[in-house]
Design goal:
disordered C terminus, 2 domains, alpha/beta, binds 3-isopropylmalic acid, about 375 residues, 13 helices, single chain, Isopropylmalate Dehydrogenase, ten-stranded mixed sheet, binds magnesium ion, two-stranded antiparallel ribbon
Length: about 375
């Protein structure tokens, strides 16, 4: 298969971890006989520095023409601590999501059995955790009208949804649930918010077309608690933009490190793959960042294009690194392995055919069991 991949390394540790994902994709290319072309472009704080714009037109055009976008990370503390800053790195990512129509953000949370003791929660609580968050990504409070009063003492962000924005992601989430454990939890705040009541109405109606899927509802405050109390109860979580942002960070640490979790953001025309972690500025250039979330994002990219065997090969190589203790210091403070050692080990084990030949390809569809 020929794929044009736009590579947006971004800020902080983004370039270091994205480089390891590229190395793994190149190993896949070589071993399985595909042709992937990578074109790199600026985004985020680095793009502001070089062009004044967090999403330069050239970057946007490159992404629009590409089959997929591989994204590193975004953000720089110098903007976080300046509430008056007019231009921010994050605007680049938000605009990119909107322009590419990436309305569905898919964040799988699966604990690796070899890492059970890394979780901040007790083993018996996290064991068996395997859920996927479907987060709406181009609507809600992130994109509603923003206002400041003249005197600068009042500010507001509007949370607005149209039923079409809810139904398109709801269908994807129901389809995922259908092929997993047939359970979908809608997370909202319908006891308080009108927009949440619209979500309930639309999602309840859609559930009639998926009789095999059990739909249940949770208020977001309760969901935050349930994720810690009993994370293995969840299969597919469907939620709006900001609740999904918050719950996915919470979910990410259940498995022991935020450095492990990948994500896919998909629309009808485009798709983007990125680790869910941020730019981790304190680690920049130190060769200590965990590249696994970025590498697993590359696996989700392969899976998205139906390259199932290739995706399994990457996931198996990751598992091998974890089993052998070939990990960065976030997973083992005594580890002497750096970002590039881990990436190199994984890339060089992608050709270990014995691991994936004969596996049931059906099982590894996005959000199903073996992949991440
Ligand atoms: C994420 C991030 C982004 C978000 C930021 C960087 C704008 O936290 O992808 O979860 O809030 O969506
Ligand atoms: Mg976030």
């Amino acid at each position: 298969m020929k794929l044009k991949i736009a590579l947006l390394p971004g800020d902080g540790i983004g370039p270091e971890v994205a480089a390891q994902a590229v190395a793994c994709l190149q190993a896949v290319e070589e071993h399985f006989g595909h042709t992937f072309t990578f074109s790199e472009a600026l985004v985020g704080a680095i793009a502001i520095e070089k062009t004044g714009d967090p999403l330069p037109e050239t970057t946007l055009n490159l992404c629009k023409r590409a089959d997929a976008v591989l994204f590193g990370a975004i953000g720089d503390p110098k903007y976080d601590n300046d509430p008056g800053a007019k231009v921010r790195p994050e605007q680049g990512l938000l605009r990119l999501r909107k322009e590419l129509g990436l309305f569905s953000n898919i964040r799988p949370v699966k604990v690796f059995p070899t890492l059970l003791d890394k979780s901040p929660l007790r083993k018996e609580i996290v064991s068996g955790t395997d859920f996927v968050i479907y987060r709406e990504l181009t609507g809600g409070i992130y994109f509603g009208e923003k206002k400041w009063s003249e005197d600068g003492t009042t500010a507001s962000d509007l949370c607005e949804y149209h039923e079409s924005e809810i139904s398109r992601i709801a269908h994807l989430a129901f389809k995922a649930a259908k092929s997993r454990r047939q359970k979908l939890t809608l997370v909202d705040k319908a006891n308080v918010l009108e927009s949440s009541r619209l979500w309930r109405k639309v999602v309840t109606k859609i559930s009639e077309s998926y009789p095999e899927v059990t739909l249940n509802y949770l208020f977001v405050d309760n969901a935050a608690m349930q994720l810690i109390l009993n994370p293995s109860q969840f299969d597919v979580i469907l939620t709006e933009n900001m609740f999904g942002d918050i719950l996915s960070d919470e979910g990410s640490v259940i498995g022991g490190s935020i450095g492990l979790l990948p994500s896919a953001s998909v629309g009808t025309e485009n798709a983007m793959f990125e680790p869910i972690h941020g730019s981790y500025p304190q680690a920049t250039g130190k060769n200590i960042a965990n590249p696994i979330a970025s590498i697993l994002s590359a696996a989700m990219l392969l899976d998205h294009f139906n390259l199932k065997e290739e995706a399994i090969a990457v996931v198996n190589a990751v598992n091998k690194a974890l089993k052998k203790g070939l990990v960065t210091p976030d997973l083992n403070p005594k580890s002497k392995y750096g970002t590039d050692d881990v990436g190199h080990f994984i890339a060089s084990h992608i050709s270990d055919e014995d691991d994936y030949r004969g596996l049931n390809k059906e099982n590894i569809g996005l959000g199903k069991s073996t992949i991440i």
